[in-house]
Write a structure and sequence with these properties.
single chain, about 500 residues, alpha/beta, Beta-lactamase, D-tyrosyl-trna(Tyr) Deacylase, Chain: A, 2 domains, 5-stranded antiparallel sheet, 5-stranded mixed sheet, 24 strands, globular
């Protein structure tokens, strides 16, 4: 038998390894201090930090709580999309007909068949129509039939979320979504005439602008709030009235507004653009199915999914996220529903060994009062993604601290600037961050920090402090990393 002294010494040498294997359950002091100053209790947070390659997390506090992640939920949707559909996946919008074309006249209907393209912009829609004109179509003597059947017609109230129906982020999904169903207004101050001119793109006759703005001197400040928007409208038309002030110091400003119904918007836009292209159209605009015998005349192909997820995550685009989310339910033959999409994501997570009984998915974008996930399981998603073949595409889609996206103005003077790829989330009563942080030793860690509290708007300092702590901590003795347990130095 070994002497008692030798056994005791060996146990003492092993003790740090057992300690390292246990995640800390106390917040780092800078984080705890910032939370206290914000008036946010630990009972309202979920924190999870896990170094890549380690068997146990570095930090886990409230990590099992089911919390609203706001836009950080887009990480689940975009990772699922990249794996389930593939980074090179694209959406096609087809122009088809079952009529004959002779001497530039289409004697029949024109069908626009959508497949859920998250970013069919004004420019791409114009190119589709120009291509159609180049194929020898000038006059259309039938109807414009919109085939939007791939997405189910679910009840959508654009003002239900926050009573802001004209905000573009409240635009509901559609299998044939064009230009986010929006018009963009440019506010142009003129010092000579002391007026503010408003231009509209695209200029639709169904959208009326009432300009009662007064040009004033002084600092720009919250120029959007000073516009005093008075909006009225329905599915067929919209009226946007501006009765406030606009400061000369603001320069030219841009603001987009969601208007009309999907069918009416596409009809108005098509009619205007087709006329601009020298075309003629006098038929009706209606929804319908594309006949099996219809032949394709032109196609607009979307960006690849790897490019789409960059817009979704870098700039937290809710409409594009919802389009992608529904696209995950289009493989069963039936029109895609949010319920079917949620089931697809949950089944995919289960196959990856991530059991998340607390997960609630309403639309996959995080623009929701009911979506829920725990910090531990959002961290598990990020750990899984890091080991996935689509990791480069997902990570490249995340905002980089102090560099771009929703983090471009954040952490400018911090050491973690440029070292963190992090998705942010923000709703009333919710603030979240989730992503990857590279520490000073070159090790990367998954970081999740969610806050659900009335004072959540004050949580940024605490979340920034956690990112800084992860970047600057000494990870050389962290967490029983697997390579260290193998005896590597």
């Amino acid at each position: 038998m070994l002497p008692t002294r030798v056994i005791t010494t060996a146990l003492l040498m092993l003790l740090p390894l057992f300690v390292m294997a246990q995640p800390a359950n106390t917040l780092p002091e800078p984080v705890a201090r910032a939370l206290a100053q914000a008036g946010i209790p630990e009972s309202a947070i979920g924190v999870y930090v896990h170094e890549i390659g380690a068997e146990q997390p570095v930090l886990a506090i409230g990590a099992e709580r089911a919390l609203n992640p706001a836009s950080s939920m887009k990480l689940v949707t975009t990772y699922a999309g990249l794996e389930m559909l593939g980074p090179a996946y694209t959406w096609n919008t087809d122009a088809l007909t079952d009529g004959a074309i002779a001497q530039d006249v289409l004697a029949g209907n024109l069908y626009l068949k959508g497949s859920g393209d998250p970013k069919l912009t004004l420019e791409n829609f114009w190119l589709l129509l120009r291509n159609l004109r180049a194929r020898g179509v000038r006059e259309i003597r039938g109807d414009l039939v919109l085939d939007r059947r791939l997405f189910a017609e679910e009840l959508q109230d654009p003002g239900a979320f926050d009573d802001q129906p004209t905000r573009p982020y409240n635009t509901g999904p559609s299998a044939l979504l064009v230009n986010f169903k929006a018009v963009t207004l440019q506010f142009i101050p003129d010092a000579a005439t002391r007026t503010v001119r408003i231009t509209v793109e695209p200029p639709l006759p169904q959208v009326q602008i009432i300009n009662n703005l007064k040009l004033v001197d002084g600092p720009c400040g919250d120029w959007v709030g000073k516009l005093r928007l008075d909006s009225q409208g329905n599915a067929d038309s919209a009226r946007l009235g501006f009765n406030g002030t606009y400061a000369l110091d603001c320069g030219e400003g841009l603001r987009s507004f969601s208007v009309m119904g999907h069918r009416q918007y596409i009809g108005a836009l098509f009619t205007q653009l087709w006329k601009d292209l020298g075309g003629s159209f006098g038929g009706q605009v209606r929804d319908g199915a594309t006949p099996d015998q219809a032949r394709r005349l032109a196609t607009a192909r979307s960006l690849s999914l790897s490019e789409i997820v960059r817009d979704v995550n870098k700039y937290s685009n809710n409409v594009m996220a919802r389009q992608l989310f529904l696209s995950l339910a289009m493989n069963n033959g039936a029109p895609a529903t949010t319920a079917a999409a949620a089931n697809s994501v949950k089944q995919w997570l289960a196959l990856k060994g991530i059991a998340a009984p607390e997960l609630v998915l309403e639309n996959g974008s995080g623009l929701s009062r009911i979506e829920r996930i725990s910090a531990r399981n959002l961290g598990a998603v990020l750990l899984s993604a890091y080991a996935s073949p689509v990791m480069p595409e997902l990570m490249a889609s995340l905002p980089v601290a102090a560099v771009d996206g929703t983090l471009r103005r954040r952490l400018k003077s911090a050491e973690v600037a440029g070292q963190a790829h992090v998705k942010t989330g923000s709703l009333s009563g919710v603030r979240s961050i989730a992503g990857y942080v590279l520490d000073a030793q070159g090790n990367r860690a998954v970081v999740v920090f969610m806050v659900n509290h009335a004072n959540a708007f004050n949580a940024q300092a605490a979340q920034d402090a956690l990112l800084g702590w992860v970047h600057n901590r000494d990870s050389s003795n962290c967490c029983g990393r697997q390579e260290r347990r193998r005896g590597k130095k």
